[in-house]
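Structure catalogue
Derive tokens from sequence
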Amino acid sequence: MTTHPNLLFIIADQLRADFLGCYGATFVKTPHMDALAAQGIRYERAYSTSPICVPARASLLTGMNSIRTGVTENFSWLRPDLAACGIRTWPEMLNSVGYTTAGIGKMHFYPWDINHGLQYRVTAEDKRHIHIRDDYYHFLRAHGERKYHGKEHEGYFDNKGAIINRLPWELSIDHFVGEEAIRFLKTYGSDGPFATMVSFPGPHCPYDPNQEFLDQVDPQQMPAAIPAVPGDADQLLHICIEGHLRPWHGVDYSTFTDAQKQKVRAHYAASVNQVDVEIGRIMATLATEGLSENTVVIFAGDHGDYLGDHGFIGKSSYYEAAIHVPLIVRVPGAQAGVHEGLVELTDVTATLLAFGEVKPPQPLDAWPLPGLGLATQARSIICGFVSNGWMAYDGRWKLCKYATGEQHLFDRANDPNEQTNRINDPIAAAELRRLDNALTLEVMRSVALSTNAQKVDRAVVTYDGTFGKRGWQRPYPHAFA
């Protein structure tokens, strides 16, 4: 590789790790994801610490956790004065060292067409956002078609969002994203170093594969959902059910039978297979265009999907199905393997910058991923934040605290399905105190950094005589030194 390799970051929306063959799934075909894992480093314990679409992506853009970005739920976004605060996105930082930056697919920015340093953009936003006039909208119009809401499909309500896509595969959104990624690689791939994010809207709900992919899945082979424990998360589950009744989804999960869960899982598996096919096509294009030997490929999910585990659907809380994501990095010429240590999804950001040899102006919460020949540290505990919940996890013990007042402490070494809440167990009191202390310290650190823009220069206040005169105005915002 040259000093600055090409960087290709592929992300699938709402993709949980255990629906990939390389993470142990035997019931779904993911040969191209598996091949990528065989050629690179597969991170066995990679976690999305803000398991909601927009917070996860805001943290990926900046390398900062969701307390620091201020984006802890889907209907919020990064402050518009980032640059004045001394904060840069990874596309902006890689631009500064000569990279052509591109974003293809779902970005979930507000507004949806803002660039954030991406010089080349082809947009295909969330499958739920049928009124956005993005590039996919115009592609469909040019073919005499339009976007459809899930409820416009047969069986949507009865099958809890599991449907057959009305659009043929060649017009489907994930195929469109794959085609546009290939177009970019063929057109601009040889022009110089590129840093490209390819973001598939699938397998996010609605669970809408095409029939030919669903035919490859046996619903009877789907793993059963993890049962709910009455009293453990009743209020969280109520919030989840109420949220999915809103017009964006409109499905009632207050009853969710085992048969319905199996059907949702089969449709989800088929949707995963569809993304896998497109990854295969992208990897083949790298090879035919002579780009494979100078392109670092990173593949991940932004968060998972419960698919009925614990009675839930979607994400937003800290059970394993929502936060455990696939993460694979292929570096040309490097040894393949499996890394067992804890890593965070946001570590992708620091990894992209490290390969580009960029020093960010803002302190990052992301660290370069281990095992890639980059200077880094090992994580002993990871902490996560969304608007209604926090988590601290050391790879065995997981502490979750929610705005509902519900708290969980799980020993995942002995309770991998998180069925026994140890929060009031005196035998686990020392683990509770240890994790709670780590979580408190991380909140304090993050809050202190998040208020940097409001700081007043200490030297001016202490030594500058103009401060003592009436009418003095403090510079705002304060940027990181």
In short: The longest helix spans residues 258-288. The chain has a mean pLDDT of 96. The chain has two domains: 6-386, 389-468. DSSP finds 13 helices and 13 strands in the chain.
